[in-house]
Amino acid sequence: MNVVTVEGFGFAYGRHCVFDSVDLRIPPGVTGLLGPNGAGKTTLLSVLATLAPVRVGRINVLGLDVADRGQRRQLRARIGFVPQRFGVVGSFTVLESVSYAAWLHGVPSPRCDTAARKVIEQVDLTSQADRKVRKLSGGMRQRLGIAQALAHEPELLLLDEPTVGLDPGQRLRLRELLRQIGQARSVVVSTHMVDDVEQACGRVVVLDRRVVFNGTPAALAERGAAGHAPGTALERGYTSLVDDVPAGRST
What we know:
The chain is an alpha/beta fold and about 250 residues long. The protein has one domain (about 5-245): Rossmann fold (3-Layer(aba) Sandwich). About 35% of the residues lie in helices and about 25% in strands. It has 9 helices and 10 strands. It has helices at about 40-50, 70-75, 95-105, 110-120, 140-150, 170-180, 195-200, 215-225, 235-245, and strands at about 5-15, 15-25, 30-35, 55-60, 65, 80, 155-160, 185-190, 205, 210-215. β1 and β2 (about 15-25) form a beta hairpin. α3 (about 95-105) crosses α4, α3 (about 95-105) runs parallel beside α5 and α4 (about 110-120) packs across α5. The two termini are about 30 Å apart.
């Protein structure tokens, strides 16, 4: 069964059309949403996370209809979402932050501390468990956000541009974390960095207000294998798709 099924999906902010009759299927595993700024990646993730409405078309996530109020409530208990910018309480410790996130997602109070320690270890923050959040580096904060999203053991993790602003070492560690998480649950991660997809994802969807590619990174690289432009074959394959799409992107 597909993790995400999108049929005839349309979305607009006022008069600005983001998507028009999009069809998309995402299987289990780690899938990267690749596309330039304004391609609709954040919009799609917001809809999948039930934070934006479905007015045109139909979207099922984990077999549940995102447009149905009752099913939407069920879905929220089965997904974890890390937006580009997420709030943290600087005076909380890492353990307190994750334990609180677990409680907010319905984990019974007596189990929150245990659940928090489990995911803190998973994201390699055990040594920082008693450290105040305000003292964490950017990379540590990103891992904290992922730990908060994993605290209730969701089946699907949604990540919006998690590597933006990180230094090369932090990005490498985060990619390895995504690969590890993907062994136990499905992940959909948006990015505009091709190497994130190459290193962490088993599947890639290229968006630019519509789906212009949906397949494996190897298949995307084949499109650029014979090219002579700068960059890797995957980068050339991606660029060829984006360059073929008409201009006029919405944010």
